[in-house]
């Protein structure tokens, strides 16, 4: 693994998408800001959406924002890691790179976006008078586990995407469904009993719920659930690593 | 030093990529196997150059991909005591949206240089490319020659232990090719190993210390570049018959020199005799430069030849062609040869070549067309005789290939006051 290379790729990843435009890399951060603006001002203020059990005008906006910021980092990392070998074909078929750590640059670049939007979000929390409690110190931990899960999953799927190109589209569709199956836009309490029962098995619910606990309910997140998510991610990573070892030669032949 | 031992590579050809996975799961065969390399071993010592020759599809590109680490071999291993970089047609992984300078950083990182190292070498890299201000432009605006200069410069400055070169070098203009060649020689003198893959046989002969011939993934011969190339030409000859005629590639060992003389023949003609004579018609093994040399050889037709033509090829001790022509190219009328009929060819020419050993090769072909091509190539006999040329004591002292006998004048001129 070559840290220098991964950092260089991450830097490129952030700058290249909007290269040639005047604002350049700033666009990476303008989009999430627009999201935050829509969620807080339009949803909460104008449409008057309220979070059940809360009197704050902004509560629902913040509920939505905290979930979406985390979900975006997760879903972008999974989907982009899963297709990285096809997307970066022009590099990996030309120069020698370690394919197992190569997609790490995506996780890093998505994390930078996450940190910046999180910063703006915290700023909004402060000026709106909603307040920021010390419990937010749990955010880095939750985020690390979430990204480990995202990377492991993306890497695992990525190996198969090389052979079954349709998986690329399937991953996108599954992520769409996954988004709506996770209480990000709506709240957990409105779900019927039997869905609530299945929800424990939704790994995305584990970390999204943790963010909600921290930002909205100002409680210590369910650390036991986070531990389970960590173990699950680790198992997937081992599985992916094993599969990769078996198939690396074929992956390289097939790209 | 680079050591390749027992490298094999088989590609599996599937109708669709998904078949690959189906096979893994259902354990049923869904593919056709294509052997690209089979048990390939060689070694290139420090400061040495190995040439790899072979026809299209012989496995050269696969070997280069495995050497550069893009593909993994099924079996075997590659040991290098350092980095392998190179200038390959398969490309360098440049990002065409980025500027030349940004690509130096990106590509340099891929080649295992860290930021400080690139920062330090940046100016050297740019200077070598001679791209000047263009280095700040996106490389999508570059010509292929400019790209090659950039790629070569980065690869060389990455301080490899082994450098791979293929036809990509020929993209550059003559000036830059020379510059690259000088750099490669410098690299070699500093103890680097070079692997050179080319169809330019003269280049292989000049640059390489040894060579291997790849055919259908096997090394079919290895050794002195000159012998390998003659062998290779033999295979080409067999190809030119579209496989209609069986071609026998022999390795005849010369009794005098112990040299292997590969010759290729379709069995349709036979070289009966070959003599090198001086102006007094005495058979000779050596001659003073700038004397008349006569070459007489007899060829017997083993089937009727409608339009046979005969060639003669003179090469120096490095195997580099000095002179080559044939009756067709010299517009000499020949006649139809009946079966069992014999033609005797006499060549007489001045031999103003610089001192050294020169070898003669004979070619026979049928039915000339175009400027210098034939429909059927019948015989290619390499290095049948060797003639030693000794300096002519009456001639001027010179170095080079041959005495151009210059007329030199010198006059005194008044400078401007």
Task: Provide structural commentary.
The complex is a heterodimer of chains A (255) and B (417). By secondary structure, chain A is mainly α. Chain A contains eleven helices and no strands. The longest helix of chain A has 32 residues, at 223-254. Chain B is α/β, with parallel strands linked by helices and 417 residues long. Chain B folds into two domains: 2-218, Rossmann fold (3-Layer(aba) Sandwich); 226-390, abc- transporter (atp binding component) like domain (Coagulation Factor XIII, Chain A, domain 1). In chain B, helix 3 (100-110) crosses helix 4. Chain B is globular. Chain B starts with a strand and ends in a 27-residue tail after the last strand. Residues 251-260 of chain B have low confidence and may be disordered. The interface between A and B is medium-sized, with 28 and 29 residues.
CATH class of the largest domain in chain B: Alpha Beta
The N- to C-terminal Cα distance of chain B equals 62 Å
Average pLDDT score of chain A: 88
From the N-terminal CA to the C-terminal CA of chain A, the straight-line distance is 21 Å
Portion in beta strands of chain A = under 5%
Q: How is this structure best summarized?
A:
The complex is a heterodimer of chains A (255) and B (417). Helices cover 71% and strands 0% of the residues of chain A. Chain A is mainly alpha-helical and 255 residues long.
């Amino acid at each position: 693994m070559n840290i220098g290379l991964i950092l260089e790729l991450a830097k490129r990843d952030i700058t290249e998408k909007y290269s040639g435009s005047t604002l350049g890399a700033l666009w990476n951060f303008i989009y999430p800001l627009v999201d935050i603006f829509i969620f807080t001002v339009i949803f909460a203020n104008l449409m008057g959406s309220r979070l059940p059990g809360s009197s704050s005008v902004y509560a629902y906006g913040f509920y939505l924002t905290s979930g979406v910021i985390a979900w975006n980092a997760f879903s972008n990392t999974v989907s982009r890691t899963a297709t990285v070998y096809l997307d970066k074909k022009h590099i990996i078929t030309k120069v020698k790179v370690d394919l197992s750590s190569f997609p790490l640059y995506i996780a890093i670049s998505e994390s930078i976006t996450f940190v910046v939007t999180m910063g703006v979000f915290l700023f909004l929390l402060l000026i709106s008078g909603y307040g920021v409690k010390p419990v937010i110190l749990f955010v880095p931990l939750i985020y690390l586990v979430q990204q480990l899960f995202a990377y492991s999953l993306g890497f695992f799927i990525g190996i198969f995407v090389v052979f079954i190109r349709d998986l690329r589209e399937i991953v996108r569709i599954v992520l769409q469904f996954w988004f709506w199956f996770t209480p990000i836009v709506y709240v957990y309490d409105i779900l019927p009993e039997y869905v609530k029962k299945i929800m424990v098995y939704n790994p995305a619910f584990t970390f999204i719920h943790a963010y909600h606990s921290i930002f909205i309910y100002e409680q210590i997140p369910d650390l036991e659930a986070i531990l389970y998510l960590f173990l699950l991610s680790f198992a997937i990573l081992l599985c992916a690593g094993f599969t990769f070892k078996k198939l690396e030669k074929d992956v390289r032949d097939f790209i | 030093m680079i050591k390749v031992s027992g490298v094999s590579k088989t590609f599996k050809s599937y109708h669709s990529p998904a078949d690959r996975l189906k096979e893994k799961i259902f354990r049923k065969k869904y593919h056709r196997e294509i052997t690209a390399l089979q048990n390939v071993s060689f070694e290139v010592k420090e400061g040495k150059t190995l040439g790899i020759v072979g026809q299209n599809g012989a496995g050269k590109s696969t070997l280069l991909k495995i050497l550069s680490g893009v593909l993994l071999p099924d079996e075997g291993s590659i040991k290098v005591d350092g980095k392998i970089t190179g200038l390959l047609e398969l490309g360098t992984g440049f990002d065409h949206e980025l500027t030349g300078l940004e690509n130096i950083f990106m590509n340099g990182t891929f080649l295992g240089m860290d930021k400080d190292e690139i920062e330090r070498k940046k100016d050297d890299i740019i200077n070598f490319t001679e791209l000047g201000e263009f280095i700040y432009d996106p490389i999508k605006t570059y010509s292929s020659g400019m790209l090659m200069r950039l790629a070569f410069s980065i690869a060389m400055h990455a301080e490899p232990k082994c450098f791979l070169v293929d036809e990509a070098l020929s993209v550059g203009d003559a000036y830059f090719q020379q510059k690259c060649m000088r750099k490669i020689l410098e690299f070699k003198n500093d103890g680097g190993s070079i692997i050179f893959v080319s169809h330019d046989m003269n280049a292989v002969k000049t640059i390489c210390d040894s060579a291997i011939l790849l055919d259908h993934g096997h090394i079919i011969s290895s050794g002195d570049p000159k012998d390998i190339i003659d062998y290779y030409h033999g295979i080409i000859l067999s190809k030119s018959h579209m496989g209609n005629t069986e071609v026998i590639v022999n390795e005849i060992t010369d009794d005098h020199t112990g040299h292997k003389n590969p010759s290729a023949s379709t069995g349709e003609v036979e070289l009966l005799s070959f003599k090198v004579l001086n102006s007094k018609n005495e058979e000779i093994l050596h001659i003073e430069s700038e004397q008349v040399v006569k070459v007489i050889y007899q060829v017997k037709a083993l089937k009727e030849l409608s339009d046979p033509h005969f060639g003669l090829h003179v090469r120096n001790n490095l195997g580099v062609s000095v002179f080559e022509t044939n009756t067709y190219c010299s517009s000499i009328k020949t006649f139809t040869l009946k079966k069992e009929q014999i033609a005797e060819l006499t060549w007489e020419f001045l031999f103003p070549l610089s001192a050294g050993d020169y070898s003669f090769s004979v070619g026979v072909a049928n039915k000339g067309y175009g400027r210098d091509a034939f429909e059927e190539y019948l015989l290619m006999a390499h290095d049948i005789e060797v003639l030693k040329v000794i300096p002519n004591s009456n001639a001027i002292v010179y170095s080079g290939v041959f005495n151009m006998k210059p007329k030199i004048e010198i006059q005194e001129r008044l400078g401007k006051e």
